[in-house]
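Listing 4. Sequential folding, example run.
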Amino acid sequence: MESFSEKMIEWYEENGRDLPWRATKDPYLIWISEIILQQTRVAQGYDYYQRFIERFPDIFALAEADEDEVMKYWQGLGYYSRARNLHTAARDMIDSGGFPITYEGVRALKGVGEYTAAAICSFAYGMPYAVVDGNVYRVLSRWLGISIPIDSTKGKRIFARVADELLDRQRPGLYNQAIMDFGALLCTPVSPDCVSCPLGDSCVAHLKRLVGSLPVKCHKAKVTNRYFNYIYVRMGAYTYIHKRSGNDIWKNLYELPLIETEREWTEEEFYASSQFRGMLANGEEPVVRLVRKGVKHVLSHRVIYANFYEVILPDDSTSFANYQKISLDDLHKFAVSRLVNQFFSLILEPNN
């Protein structure tokens, strides 16, 4: 009788995805792919991976790069702390002599958790560490009929133990790739292909008709609304931007001057506000128009509603003195959020 791991590997060898980072044992390339895929679907991450490693083919190239450039290559992927952590970790590795060759060393890299460390060490070094990601949780909870919440302390401990027990210790990298693809392609969150499943005759969830209710989660993230009013300044051939800082979304990305409010403002409220008036030089009354209203941008725990205003000033204006003045032709050089980039695409198109 075939073991669980044998069935996984047999299925994978026939159905697994052909991805570039699976054709290498280079821990650097595997690390880059795993960080990209932490919060990104393979279909979206594929092109980013190719562009990223073309520009930063090794830790030396990444460590020597300016952070703004690293962020620009990450633009559009979201969860930008991943890019900052990559850059920091690359510089740390240069200082310590190269990519670590132990699980403990890999785990100590900034931005690397237990899952990512297990993936890198099993794929690059053949070390017997089991990966436990969303796909693995789903496959194991359904096959074994485990209803303990996967986001509970007890659940995490149990699934880690089960994953380790089922790991093929002779082929850990192959097995880990197999079970993750199995969850991503066949044992999917919605409408899994149970008819074609090689585990159908032993899957508790399938036999007891529990597929739709497993895995179980006990915590649901609270979603908050935020209201942004962006100001696109046109001052001849120039505009103004600034870099976000602090421990907030989009840290170290650039954006237009911004006024955040507790609720959505009317145009009259925006124009009369002390925040906007305080950005202007004394006596200046610019031409102001609302370009886009109520643009909805959904993040993992936040929903942003953004208004975009255009403010036209004379070439010799001294308004917005606290912001960075740049040529409109240079806007594309700065890493920005997807929300701001969508607006840039709009205003930079001909006839806009």
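-- end of first protein; second protein begins --
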Amino acid sequence: MDNAKLSFKQRFKLSRFFRGEPPFNGPVELNQRRVFILPTQRGLGMVFTIVLLLLIAFIYNNNLVYLLGFLLASIFFITILHTFKALAGLVVQAGFVQPVFAGEAAEFTVTVTNPGNQPKMALSVTLENEQSFTLDADADKTITLRAATQKRGWQLIDTVTFSSCYPLGAFRAWSPLRFDSRVLVYPKPSAISLPFPVGEGQQPSGKRQIERSGRDDFNGIRAYQFGDSLRQIHWKAYAKGQGLLSKQYADDANSMELWLDYQNTPGANVEKRLSQLCRWVIEAENAGIRYGLQLPGKKIAPDCGINHYAACLKLLALF
């Protein structure tokens, strides 16, 4: 856990109360250093009521009103302790964040553990949206939080805030936490469907083995590409209005080696080109084609499979 000491200046830094301390790795325990508490609007109403009761008791020298005022004041101060204890002692651990494409919501998981022998009631956690939950004694819970993504590359997870107004809603205790967790954001795939590029050393689809001997295994269908043989076109699907599709055979994917080159990719700017390359990578992987990726100063040899797919998308994200 993060036990680094804070200087006097750091301890009273205003941003610490809202954004939390600097990002850290590993689990963290919510203790008096990390849990802050302030009265809510209901709590301020209680303060006003207590002051009013004591003022009335003083003016009219009424012992019963004194008793009522002191009783309400004792409930007010005891509530502070119970609200603090609603969060105190929880242990929070950040989980792994799966890469996403730009524009998608990243799913960030946190595991909250209650090591005590008392249940934790009326808890909530907020990233961009608030989620409420409870924890039984000596139990843990994994919560998935979602954060919007805009740009490709590494994106840090924002402040995660745990809070509670238990038991009376007179106080709000909160603990802002920042984890050293980040999500890899891939470029957003292009919305425009373009045929695979045909570069030097590559052959278009129509020059591959298109004469079927009857021994090749059918391997699905894909969007028609320039150069595909008329024998490969899925005429039944075309007649049903499903668009122009080509039948794919197992030998097709094994016989083609595709190079995706940044320099030969259409696009008005860097992001447009990377977006198109991203779509080609996805389509080539789905089609089972061996493909390589070439960017200025960086190159990945042709291959296929989940590891190769992830490596290509990471290269596009960090270019």
